[in-house]
Design brief:
Strand content: under 5%
InterPro entries: MFS (IPR011701), MFS_dom (IPR020846), MFS_trans_sf (IPR036259), Proton-linked_MCT (IPR050327)
GO molecular function: transmembrane transporter activity
Main location: membrane
Subcellular location: Membrane
Protein name: Major facilitator superfamily (MFS) profile domain-containing protein
Number of domains: 1
Radius of gyration: 19 Å
CATH topology: Growth Hormone, Chain: A
Shape: globular
Oligomer: single chain
Helix content: over 70%
């Protein structure tokens, strides 16, 4: 809720910042992209520290950084202040929270691991609903500063519970490199990393620009554009739980992820034809479900590719670092393509769709590299 829930809500801030900071959409998207970039990029460091037994220290540091970033954002008035507070400070905080929590959770379950990770990821859908609603209701009444402090109070309570409730199960692995070099010889693992790079390169364009698209192309007011983002995030509960349940019971996480990524790519192509309110709500529901499926199955699939639980943190962190460069550059590239197209979204929508399609190709190669038996669960 406090990491991806807040990040998936950035579409609300994207729309607000374009007006309040008087900067183009491409510039504003760097704030959200930097936040996700740092969440993933420092995964190698935080993952290895988690393996070494420093989970509680890292998680506490992440909690402090997130709350500090939110408070500093609440008193920011310029683009660079917001960039430093919400983009960098909160990004570093999220990076100290996400990978350690996920790596620790994955060590508690040997069966139904995908479902467990999917349920935990469903918290991002909760945050993706709660935070936009709070912004929508509070912003006109108490202003930007106190709205952000109110969001900080929610995070304080949730993260306080997590700091006391999450404990490491696997004994610390004190020795070992920060990078697990044998993993570079693991062909399915490397192909999966490449596939997720391309998937994440295109995935977040929809989350960031849907609200702006609703206002500039469809012509809806600000309040309704926020409602559309809420719908996009709310249906993510379905996309995170059901595919992960099917992955455990029937297909396996990688087999489930591939068709979901294909559908998500097709939906980005279909977005080009959306020109009405009803069509946009329908598209938001469909994209929200399948984009959430990718988000939920990503860590579950990555966890399934790691057999040595003592290396769960570092192997997750290595892939997180790879995909960090995708999430850093994807949305800003989309913003530049919109500017080059004189405010039209077609180029950016095609860019996102092709990225997702290319990512699916690498995932398919990872599947075949692991086993050519199509009916094998994996």
């Amino acid at each position: 809720m406090n990491t991806w829930g807040f990040i998936n809500s950035f579409g609300v801030f994207q729309t607000y910042y374009i007006n309040s900071l008087s900067r183009p959409a491409a510039d504003i998207s760097w704030i959200g992209s930097m936040q996700i970039f740092l969440l993933f990029f420092i995964g190698t460091i935080t993952g290895r520290l988690t393996d070494a037994g420093y989970f509680r220290s890292i998680f506490l540091i992440g909690t402090i950084l997130c709350l500090l970033g939110l408070f500093m954002t609440s008193i920011s008035t310029t683009y660079w202040q917001v960039f430093l507070a919400q983009g960098i400070c909160m990004g570093l905080g999220n990076g100290c929270l996400f990978c350690p929590a996920l790596a620790t959770l994955s060590t508690y379950f040997s069966t139904k691991k995908s479902l467990v990770i999917g349920i935990s990821a469903a918290g991002s859908a909760t945050g993706g609903v709660v935070f936009p609603i709070m912004v929508q209701q509070l912003l006109p009444k108490i202003g930007f500063g106190w709205t952000m402090r109110s969001l900080g109070l929610i995070q304080l309570v949730c993260l306080g519970i997590c700091n006391f409730g999450i404990k490491q199960r696997v004994p610390p692995r004190k020795s070992g490199a920060w990078i697990d070099y044998p993993s570079f010889k693991d062909v399915p693992y490397m192909l999966f990393a490449a596939g997720m790079f391309f998937n994440f390169w295109g995935l977040y364009f929809g989350f960031y620009y849907l609200g702006a698209y609703a206002r500039s192309i469809i012509g809806v007011p600000l309040a309704e554009s926020i409602n559309i983002i809420i719908v996009l995030n709310a249906v993510g509960v379905v996309g995170r739980v059901i595919p992960n349940h099917l992955a455990d019971r029937v297909f396996g996480p990688l087999n489930t992820l591939i068709p979901i990524a294909i559908i998500d790519s097709l939906l980005c192509f279909c977005w080009i034809a959306v020109s009405t309110r009803g069509g946009l709500y329908t598209w938001s529901v469909m994209y929200g479900i399948f984009a959430a499926g990718i988000q939920g199955l990503f860590p579950a699939t990555l966890s399934s590719l790691t057999t040595d639980l003592r290396k769960a943190g570092v192997r997750m962190g290595m892939v997180f670092t790879v995909v960090s460069f995708a999430v850093l550059t994807g949305p800003p590239i989309g913003g530049v393509l919109i500017q080059k197209n004189n405010g039209g979204y077609e180029y950016a929508q095609i860019f996102a769709a092709i990225d997702l399609l290319a990512g699916t190709g690498f995932l398919l190669m990872a599947r075949l590299a692991r086993s050519r038996k199509l009916l094998t669960k994996m």
